[in-house]
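Quiz preparation item.
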């Protein structure tokens, strides 16, 4: 977030809505959609220097920021779990391929192993 210009409550509400959408996609393992939402959030942050006034209510602003960050942590946890599943699947596949190769070699050696 741009430290020079505080985000308006309107921008923070937009960011929170997108964060909630991102989390929903993450729960569904739709990581391309998560990435697209993240791009939209970055656009909002990059365009924040428009005529929006800064948040007057610092308490409301902080609550929204905390919620956004909470959703980011949740998304990171889901992404981490998904990565672990993918790595475990790859390890199992590699072990299966290695076992198939060993099996083929054993078959080709014939009865006098």
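Solution:
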């Amino acid at each position: 977030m741009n430290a020079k210009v505080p985000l308006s409550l309107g921008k923070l509400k937009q960011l929170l809505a997108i964060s909630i959408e991102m989390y929903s996609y993450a729960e569904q393992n739709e990581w391309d959609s998560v990435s697209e939402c993240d791009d939209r959030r970055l656009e909002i942050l990059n365009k924040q220097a428009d005529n929006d006034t800064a948040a007057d209510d610092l308490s409301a602003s902080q609550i929204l920021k905390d919620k956004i960050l909470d959703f980011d942590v949740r998304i990171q946890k889901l992404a981490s779990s998904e990565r672990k599943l993918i790595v475990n699947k790859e390890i199992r596949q590699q072990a299966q391929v290695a076992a198939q190769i060993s099996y083929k070699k054993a078959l080709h050696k014939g009865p006098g192993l």
